Amino acid sequence: MLRTFLSSLDYGGFGLHIDDLVEGAAMATRGCFTRIGSFWWGGAPGPSGSAEVCASSVIVDVAFLALLVIAVIAVVRIRQRGEEGRFELARRYLEKGMDPPHDLFPSSAQGDLRRGIVLVFAGLGLLGASVGMPGLGPTGLIPGFIGLGYLASFVASRKRNS
Predict the structure, then answer these.
(1) Count of CB atoms situated within 10 Å of the CB of 78
(2) What is the pTM of this model?
(3) Taking the mean position of all CA atoms in its chain, how far away is CA 37?
(4) What is the distance between the alpha carbons of residues 44 and 33, in angstroms, rounded to a whole number?
(5) CA–CA distance from 27 to each of 21, 36, 60 (Å)?
(6) In angstroms, what CA-CA distances link 44 with 40, 41, 48, 53, 65?
(7) 60-108 tens-digit pLDDT
(8) CA-to-CA distance for 125 and 157, rounded, in angstroms?
(9) Can you tell me the distance from the alpha carbon of 112 to that of 116, in angstroms, rounded to the nearest whole number?
(10) Distance CA 150, CA 125 (A)
């Protein structure tokens, strides 16, 4: 059943086969779950005090990154299909000589407000997490300042419309 589900997610156009990726990662980590390490967090301390990295940690990290890339591709494709549907509907309205409804294409100002709030709080969350994890550093400043830019764009568009 799992193989059927994974093969339905298979995106062979890029030579990417999810079932092989997941199966390879699972087989590579066998016997390594208690001391798994990675290039992000390092390995578990070994008997000599140094960090021993499990041989399969790179495979697990690459598999994780590949799954993230696949998720991003899926989200982009879903949004693209939604946009295509809205453009097709607007085209049909115009062919019939009617004006498309204003709700068909929402204002970017509302999107800027939502994105700005989400990114500011994501930045604050990453800054809070970096207190306990010194490896993150000021990573939260990046989404935080991008969020502030979206909020500034929202304020500017509201002033322009008023």
Answers:
(1) 10
(2) 0.45
(3) 23
(4) 11
(5) 10, 13, 10
(6) 12, 9, 11, 7, 21
(7) 788 889 999 999 999 999 999 999 999 999 999 999 999 988 888 777 7
(8) 27
(9) 6
(10) 18
